[in-house]
Amino acid sequence: MPELPEVETIRSGLAPHLTGRRIDDVSILHPRAVRRHVGGATDLENRLRGKRFDAVERRGKYLWLTGADATDEVAVVVHLGMSGQLLITDADVPHQKHLRIRVGLDDGRELRFVDQRTFGGWHIDDLVTVGGRAVPESVAHIAPDPFEDAFDPQRVVAVLRRKDTEVKRALLDQTVISGVGNIYADESLWRAQVHGAQKTGRTSKSRLAGVVDAAKQVMAEAIEVGGTSFDELYVNVNGQSGYFSRSLNVYGRDGEPCPRCGTPIKRESFMNRSSHFCPVCQRKR
To answer: Domain 4-139, what fold?
Structure first.
C-alpha cells in the first residue's frame, strides 16, 4: 500500500496538470470505485461536473483534490488502496484494462483512476478546519505528517512516551504521526538503531526523537526518487516506477548483510506483516 513518499510523488505530479482546470465530464466505470460515497456514482458525477480544481493536497498517506464553483467547494478524497493509480493521459489514449473513473478536463486531457484490485476509491467530503488547515472531515483525525508546518516532533515524542507500546506499532499509528507505513518504519528504525519491539515508555526521549527524525529523513530521500516500487501497481502520474527500492537497507532484505555491520538481516512476523532489522545494530534494550 502506498505510503507518504508514494502519495507525495503522485500529488506533486498531479498538481501542475489539475490546478485551475475545469472538469468537463466525469464517468464512473465501476461501482466499487465510489462505494464510500454516500450518494453513489450519479451524485458524485453531478457534483464534480463543471467544477474547477483548486489544489491537490495530502496529509500522510491521504490524498484529496479540492474542487469549487460559484456556490460549492468540495474535497474529493482518493483512497489508492493496494493498486490504485492516478494517471494523466490524452483523451484518445485507449482505456486501461482496470480503468474505474475517468475525468475529462477542459484542456482535452483526462485524469484516470485505474485500480486492478478495486480496494481503492473516491468519495466527496466536506472540508473542516483543524489546526488552522482545511482538511476533509474523514481525514481530520489523522495527525500532521513530518512535512507539515503543524508537525511538532517534541509533541510526538511526548505522545510516544505516554503510549508505552512497541516503538514500531506506535510509529505506524496514524493518529500519532501520519504517513509512515511498514517499509519506512523498518528503514527508520534501522537508521536510528532502535529495535521495533522496544517499549516506547522505556526508550529515552533522545532515542525516540532520533526515530522521528529518521522517519522524516528516510521519507524525504524516497520522495526525491519517486517512492518505492516493487511491482507495476505503484506508478506516478506518467506511469513510471519509483526507485527507492534500490536504497532500502533492511526492508525485504532478509538474510542479506546489514550495510552498517555486515550481520545478516532478520525478518520476524509483525501484525500480519513482517519486520526487518539488524539483530546487532538494533538490539532490544
So the answer is: N-terminal domain of MutM-like DNA repair proteins (3.20.190)
